[in-house]
Write a structure and sequence with these properties.
Largest sheet: 3 strands, parallel
Number of helices: 11
Bound molecules: flavin-adenine dinucleotide
Shape: globular
Strand content: 5-15%
Radius of gyration: 23 Å
Oligomer: single chain
Structural class: alpha+beta
Order of helices and strands: EHEEEEHHEEHHHHHEHEEEEEHH
Strand order of the largest sheet: 1-2-9
């Protein structure tokens, strides 16, 4: 095996405190030999975890954006979390997940509900034509599918099948969504199809993913010296494309932490490098109560208790 390259001078700045940055930080430390104290996570909210959030209290209510499902082929996740101890340090997070799911196997008895009646282990109800279309999608290049939607590819009867009902309730698909996205999901989850009508094969964590995965990982990173800056909104990135790929060539402005901005661009020591990973699944998400309509809130990705929401609504005439 080639010797690992180690760059102990590398400075790493990770934009966003979601699982992507947390995982990247852990891989930089574990596999890249970069000291944790050289790594900074810049997060615009006040909390680490991004879309894997969960929290609240009995007065204001609780919020968790999704009960996320894992499955056995999340190889990178399990590899990473095999190095991360649970909060009580009794085992690794990966061990904890597999032990739980050995004990409690997912097997839904009410996979679909129709007309008030539960349907246990529904049949897919696909016609030969539907199956041929699925097969075609699996092999057709994305460039040919282009910007077509799922409804462009399938005849209307496909959307009446129990297969579609299970598919769209599992993966939040709509007929007008991209056919390419459906193709990618088919490729990614094809090994799950036999258990699709009972959800067997779906793995869960002991607690929600924030408490079972984000908190242990955050603790491990802190123990290794990784710094997290909150209320740090990174904007104004400039990119250039050279032989090495895309690099940041313009200073970064970090609201509330402008001192960090000086480290980017011109002020970097030639032996130092800055890495930026950018991406946010939930950046434009607004969360609202069951009793009030959705609206665009000034604060992104946040939970607003009803009382505060009402005063906000009054003040902004939402
Ligand atoms: C309802 C729901 C259900 C889901 N179900 C599943 C599931 O069953 N299985 C599964 O595997 N996955 C599921 N996911 C997806 C999974 O949660 C996400 O793919 C994953 O959490 C994304 O992580 P991320 O780090 O890429 O981005 P995010 O979690 O979105 O994190 C990005 C972070 O960057 C911050 N940020 C954004 N812009 C800036 C900026 N300019 N400056 C500084 N910080 C910034 C944001 O505040 C955020 O904290 C689900 C997601 C949702 C919302």
């Amino acid at each position: 095996m080639p010797a690992r390259r180690s760059d102990t001078n590398a400075k790493v700045y990770l934009v966003g405190g979601g699982i992507a940055s947390l995982a990247a930080a852990a891989f930089f430390i574990r596999d890249g030999n970069i000291p944790g104290h050289n790594i900074t996570i810049l997060e615009e909210s006040r909390k680490i975890g991004g879309s894997l959030d969960a929290g609240g209290n009995p007065v204001d209510g609780y919020i968790m954006r999704g009960g996320r499902m894992l499955e056995s082929k999340y190889l990178c996740t399990y590899d990473l979390f095999s190095s991360i101890p649970t909060l009580d340090r009794s085992k690794t997070v990966t061990q904890e997940i597999f032990e739980l799911n050995k004990l409690m196997k997912t097997s839904s008895k009410s996979r679909l509900v129709r007309g008030g009646q539960r349907i246990n282990a529904p049949r897919f109800g696909l016609s030969e034509r539907h199956i041929l279309t699925i097969e075609r999608l699996r092999v057709e290049p994305e460039s040919i599918l282009g910007r077509s939607s799922i409804s462009d590819q399938f005849e209307p009867s496909f959307f009446e099948t129990d297969f579609w009902a299970m598919w769209c309730t599992t993966f939040a698909f709509q007929p007008w969504h991209s056919a390419v996205e459906l193709k990618r999901y088919l490729a990614r989850f094809v090994h799950m199809v036999s258990g699709f009508n009972t959800l067997s094969g779906i793995l869960r964590t002991v607690y929600n993913q924030y408490d079972s995965m984000v908190r242990p990982l955050q603790k491990w990173l802190e123990e290794h010296g990784v710094k997290s800056e909150f209320n740090a909104s990174v904007t104004n990135l400039g990119f250039c494309h050279d032989a090495e790929g895309f690099t940041v060539d313009r200073s970064v402005f970090v609201a509330a932490f402008s001192a960090i901005a000086l480290l980017f661009g011109t002020n970097l020591n030639p032996s130092e490098r800055a890495w930026l990973i950018y991406g946010c699944l939930a950046v434009l998400v607004s969360i609202y109560s069951l009793y009030l309509r959705a609206c665009s809130l000034p604060s992104r990705s946040c939970f607003i208790p009803q009382k505060q929401y009402r005063s906000l609504k009054r003040s902004q005439s939402l």
